[in-house]
Amino acid sequence: MADVDASTNLRVRSLYPYETQWAEDLNFGENVVIEAHPSKFGGDWWYGTTVNDGRSGFSPQTYVPVVEPGLIDRGYFSKETSSHT
């Protein structure tokens, strides 16, 4: 946890499902909204908490791009509107 920047809170959405490999990892499916804290030193693993059920852990940063404010609320990332780019 020393590598986690707790002062930075980013809303991200999972592109792919991630199955945990270690006890401290966060398991999630595709299209899950997560409040994430990036690495202080630019590391590839971010610490996050799922918005829908409050589970926490580490996940690969490449699975969870930052979402622009308002895009989640407008359904930008929903399966019904996946044609948006």
From TrEMBL:
This protein's UniProt keywords: SH3 domain
Pfam families tied to this protein: SH3_9 (PF14604)
Boundaries of every SH3 domain copy: 7-69
SUPFAM superfamilies (alphabetical): SH3-domain (SSF50044)
Keyword Zinc-finger found: no
Keyword Secreted: no
InterPro entries (alphabetical): SH3-like_dom_sf, SH3_domain
Name of the protein in its database record: SH3 domain-containing protein
